[in-house]
Amino acid sequence: MSAFVPLALLLTGGCTFDEHLPQVDIQGTVVIPRAAATRQVPNAATGQTEEVVDPRAIGPVFMGAFASIDEPGLNYDFPHPEIGPIFLEGETGNAYPYGGGTVGRFDFACYQAMVCKVVTGRFTTYEDILDYFDEVVQESVVDDRGGVVDSADAFQAYCFELFNYTDDAELGFLTETEDALDFVENTDGDFEADFDLWAVTYYQGMQIWGWVDTPDEAYNFSTCDENRGQNNQEYANDYQYGANVPDVLNFPGENISEGDYVVSSPIAFDYEDADAFRDAGDEPTVIIDFLAD
Amino acid sequence: MLLTSLLMLTACDDGGRNFVPEVDPNNPGIVHLGEFTPSPLAESRENAFFGTIGVVEPGKFGGATATFLGTGDEVCVWVDPESVFWNQAVAVQNRVGKYAYPDYFYDDGDLDIEVGLSAFYTGSPGVEMGDFQAVYEDSLGNESFIEFNECTITDIYGQAGAHSGRGTIEFCTIDTAAHPGKEYTIVLNTWSLPSDDYSLAYGLAVFEGSCSDLQDAGFAVQSDYGTNANVIAASPTGECFLQDEVGKSAGGEDLDFDTLERSFCAEEQTYHCCSYYPDNSHCSDEPTTEDICPANYLADFE
Question: Could you tell me if A194 and A265 are in contact, meaning their C-beta atoms sit under 8 angstroms apart?
Fold first, then answer.
């Protein structure tokens, strides 16, 4: 029995072993302006256009850690990470991010009409999606034959049939409860969400920067590519599920379009190394506030 | 215990150099072939270069380099290393007969292509092999590698960075539109040498246009058995775009190699080694069985 004591101690000690990894997990809060959740919606009754503020309109938020952020006007008209060499005319340089993540991602909501239209962490139910597209986007959800989907049950049945799922929890575009949605309105009337940037390689002086992709008038997102993602060939279907463009953090400027908001005051970390960062437990608040136009 | 110690000490006396092939000054392991002019496709075969690469001293990478000037359009770089290789089909049931005969793999070598602008090449042609990687240092002093190799070969999953295996053709199309008149360097990195003579014969062709243009070029190959096949940029007939690299690199011809290669391109290598020319030195000399070379093979083949 006594021979097992050192082994047990060793195993117990192993659980506390600090590998001093150069990668860190960065958690914090990101704040986006109220305007990024606002859409101009025509009112059929009055004939006027009304502003509708709805957090479901918030597109994916892309965030990364970079060596530094350039002032507007250097390579782009908005604050942008420093870029590496440009090799060919008409191309841009790589921003060489140290890591990053998103708040919300594109997910395929079962119908071809929903390709590149739905972001995770924004909707809780099928009704939620149908209502939003009916009332805010003013483009009803249609099925693959062009018929309007007016029933949550039909929506669910189609999804379950398509994916061979049996539970809503298997669908990434549905969030289980209202409390679990990404964004909440803060006291300033802006919207904020928690973010996690996993396994970012830490370098002293690196800066956290990002942007929110807001949909254009036709409700298209510049960071989503309809020709990427899984191929749907059910019966007569032949289309892709859509996915975000590749290397989105390597070439942010190529994917930021008019109406998007970017960080103008990036958060810089001056901790000497990853261990010091972890010890400090820093959870920054990143504010996205600069309108790209 | 004492005897064991003595044995171990004796074993340590062997530096292992006897396992490393000797350098042959007449067949260098690093060569520079000079400048190539991309040929019109129709003349690409006759303008191809044939040579050999030998052993380099331990600790160095071997290979060959050559250059060409950007044409302002696409250029195909094609290398065919010695010799032909196939994976022997060993399935008990439903064996693919044309791959039943074992390959003779002691005559196989492997060359991997890289091509890029000479300005980015880090090697010394004819002296030391290099690559096309540069280092970018950001404002915090952190380094990232930038790859300037423009010969991108994808694997079966579509991922870049693949190379063909032993004895297999390798090629890529380089778009020189952005740099007409600028010098490009072709790098043939020695991945392995044939273990029967440590001399790797190869053919190198540089021609105008895309490698896929070969599809419609009308190059054909005929086996001794009379089977014809159109040469395209794929296995097996691509192996016969440049024929008999073993014989031509020695300034002559190697009938054994040439006939087996043409049989391989016509997918008749098992028939060739079993029945047509069983004494071919490039066919494996492993004992064959009725299972591999059935008595009625010819009938089956037909």
Answer: no
Blockwise average pLDDT, block size 10, chain A, 293 residues: 63 73 98 96 88 96 98 95 89 95 97 97 98 95 94 97 96 96 97 98 98 96 96 89 95 96 98 97 97 93
Tokens of A111: 């119908």
Closest CA to A280 of A17, A24, A42: A24
Q: What is the pTM of this model?
A: 0.77
Query: How far, in Å, are A246, A255, B47, B227 from residue A60 at the CA level?
Result: 14, 12, 56, 60
Of the candidates B139, B144, B178, the beta carbon closest to that of A68 is on: B139
CA quadruple B221, B223, B224, B226: dihedral sign: negative
Rg of chain A's alpha carbons, rounded to an integer? 22
What are the residue ranges of helices labelled H in chain A?
Answer: 4-14, 126-131, 152-163, 274-280
CB contact under 8 A, A84 and B146: yes
| Interface contact A96, partner B, CB < 8 A | yes
Interface confidence, given as ipTM, is 0.81
Q: Chain A closest CA to B142's CA: distance in Å?
A: 8
Closest by CA position to A256, among listed A207, A219, A293? A293
Closest CA to B115 of B56, B49, B184: B184
Report the alpha-carbon distance of residue A156 to residue A148 in Å, rounded: 14
Interchain CB distance below 8 Å, A203 and B140: yes
Alpha carbons B34 and B134: distance in angstroms, whole number: 24
Residue type, B180: P
Check B140 against A206: CB less than 8 A apart: yes
Put simply, whether B138 touches A (Cβ < 8 Å) is: yes
Distances (CA, A) of B45 to A22, A71, B50, B103, B270: 54, 56, 11, 26, 27
Window A:115-174, CB contacts with B under 8 Å? none
